[in-house]
Specification:
The structure is a homodimer. By secondary structure, chain A is of the alpha/beta class. Chain A is built from twelve helices and nine strands. In chain A, the strands form two sheets. Chain A has a six-stranded parallel β-sheet. The longest helix of chain A has 26 residues. Chains A, B: Pfam families: PDH_C, PDH_N. Chains A, B: Keywords: Oxidoreductase. Chains A, B: This is Prephenate dehydrogenase/arogenate dehydrogenase family protein.
Chain lengths: 293, 293
């Protein structure tokens, strides 16, 4: 049971966590912190939070659980602000999409509190954002990756695992390095490739007509290109090393494809496309149950 | 009213055209031609076609409408085979995803029949294929692009437009060059970029774990990477010139992104992502009604 949950960032991720714990009757009070007064008012109206604040330091007083669900680029001042006011038993976690940099922030700003800190990443992305997007059941059947610190107390880790399981999630543990390499490959780089594709399309001489005839393939392929610029800039910078390695691999594969096309190499093209297609088809078959956001 | 419709290629595209005309009571008999006996039997069972044949030359005898709905790479032998047996009034069209090359095939193989030939492209892609995927309503609210020849008789074009409208589609006319440039940009290149992305992922040191944690963003972004290899090889080769120009633009944009990341240029990255994101968001707002396949 959580007495007082503070959301530092009251959007889809934090809001849906609060709603899930409320439905499970595992939280007495939820305080939402955010920069947008309009968004906080919406969260209050929707019953996502019970109280709102624009002052993180004040909000965390008396809290026994803090979820930092703000973009990674905003976490540093939040950690600095709350550090002096955290109760010793207050579990601090986050929902950052990158983990090596966030682990560095915990070490730098919450050094005295590390046994109660457990970095995490719920895998429930969406192009939607804001408190109005929060919903019950967002985490049902989803995965949550925790990247505990060597200092994290086993009881803190277990408490957080239990809470995420109450939200319906399956909980995994990884090292921060492993996490960042995996999510660069299957999340961060797809977003960046989709942004690059949209920008390449904008260089087309007839972009208005192109967009006019874009259909369902385009729709799905570019859905993530509509994602939040500030958030994805921060993720790309935070996970720069792993992201750059994957982007280089993408450039290399595009250049290989260009060479096959220039050579008119039908057999090579078949092989190239079959490798990609069979991997995707096999993945689809394995993950049939994966729900849409 | 169509007396005898012959589908050269009895899959999603041809089958759904036949079903739509049947429901509109606009066709008396549908003959399906295909290479796979099992697929033709399935089409007969499902009532998509009334008779099956593996001989295109024989099948088109007495036909007043032929839809070539086979992959573009298979169209040449089909046109050659049917040319001697076409009735003078038999309207011939196709559903090829590229048009410059298909127009060339009409000229080369159906030179005596051009007034009754109207190349076309129904925009209703899907990663599904085969007669079992055919369904009523596939073309409801979809677009069909016709690229008539200078020789195409106005009555032939109008007759085909009427039939596609009876299927629920909106009909547009373009030049073959315009068509190929637009669809390279919004259809062919997204598929190729998705294939390249999958192949880059296969170079990751830990691909099994990556695929294990791939979520909904990955799912949508790579859906088209599961598409039919033979079909997309043919499209890429057929539309090579336009496709290569777009692929080069994608490589250029990825390299620009890599430079921004290497330089840690946060402002440049924000601008880069905002341009892509705002374009995608505006497109989404304009096309809200676009249905899923």
């Amino acid at each position: 049971m959580v007495r007082k949950l503070v959301l530092l960032g009251t959007g889809l991720i934090g809001g849906s966590f609060a709603l899930a714990l409320k439905r499970a009757q595992q939280v007495a009070q939820v305080v939402g912190v955010g920069r947008s007064q309009a968004n906080l008012e919406r969260a209050l109206e929707l019953g996502v939070i019970d109280a709102a604040s624009q002052d993180p330091a004040q909000a965390v007083q008396g809290a026994d659980l803090v979820l930092i669900a703000a973009p990674v680029g905003q976490m540093q001042p939040l950690m600095q602000a709350i550090a002096p006011n955290l109760a010793g038993d207050c579990l601090v976690t986050d929902a950052g999409s990158t983990k090596r940099d966030v682990v560095g922030l915990y070490r730098a700003h919450l050094a005295a509190h590390l046994p109660a800190c457990v970095p995490g990443h719920p895998i429930a992305g969406s192009d939607l954002s804001g408190a109005a997007a929060a919903r019950y059941g967002l985490y049902e059947g989803r995965r949550v990756v925790l990247t505990p610190l060597p200092e994290s107390a086993p009881e803190a880790i277990e408490r957080l695992e239990t809470l995420w399981r109450l939200c319906g999630a399956a909980v995994y543990r990884m090292s921060p390095e492993e996490h960042d390499s995996v999510f660069a490959a299957v999340s961060h780089v797809p977003h960046l490739v989709a942004f690059a594709y949209m920008n390449a399309l904008l260089e087309h001489g007839n972009v208005a007509q192109c967009l006019d005839f874009a259909a369902t393939g385009f729709r799905d392929f570019t859905r993530i290109a509509g994602s939040h610029p500030e958030m994805w800039r921060d993720i790309a910078l935070a996970n720069r090393e792993a992201v750059l390695a994957d982007l280089q691999r993408n450039v290399g594969q595009l250049q290989a494809l260009i060479h096959l096309l220039e050579a008119g190499d039908a057999a090579g093209l078949t092989h190239y496309i079959e490798r990609a297609s069979s991997t995707r088809v096999a993945w689809e078959a394995r993950t049939k149950g994966l729900s849409k956001p």
